[in-house]
Amino acid sequence: MVTLRKSYGLADSRTMRRLGRGQFLLVAAAAAAVIAALVVVLSPPSAPADGETRGGVTETRWGRLSEGDRELLAAVRRAGLWEMPAGQQAQQRASSARVKEVGDMIMEQHGQLDEDVRATSARLGVILPSEPNADQKRWLAELSSKFGADYDQTFVLRLRAAHGKVFGTIAKVRAETENSEIRAFSERSLKYVNTHMTLLESTGLATREALNT
Fold first, then answer.
1. pTM (2 decimals)?
2. CA 200 to mean position of chain CA atoms
């Protein structure tokens, strides 16, 4: 009769090693899942590109903020980004003392408006553009190619047309916005735009003939 020996040590140690590896893999998988969850929770949402507006409507403590409201802030910001350098340029290139004076006042007032639009946008969480749009860059390039009386005429007509366009944008948003911050900003902006159009017309260069050319 053969007595079978039980080999406890070797079999048990192999079993323990298998269990140990299994438990280690489970713990590692659980840890990886926790880390992935923390990354999702703690990572900030991606910000929109510079000047890009988010679609839809956002609820704020000042009322609903629409895409049109955001675009108003961006439009006012862009206006300053090309009219401030244009006003500065007028000091060197214009032949008319009045055009130089008007350019200086527009540059200074757009600086004030730029501070306003940046502060308002910061409160509302709106990201603003950092450069003019393609049309505005083209207008600046056009002005850079002119001197004297030709510069005077082009400066007045380009800036007057631009102010007329942004005036319509501001007025439309002012009439439709549900956000009290945007409403108040629109009213402040309209005062600047009206003042600038009056200044440009005071040069005597915004004639019917010039406007129709």
1. 0.71
2. 28
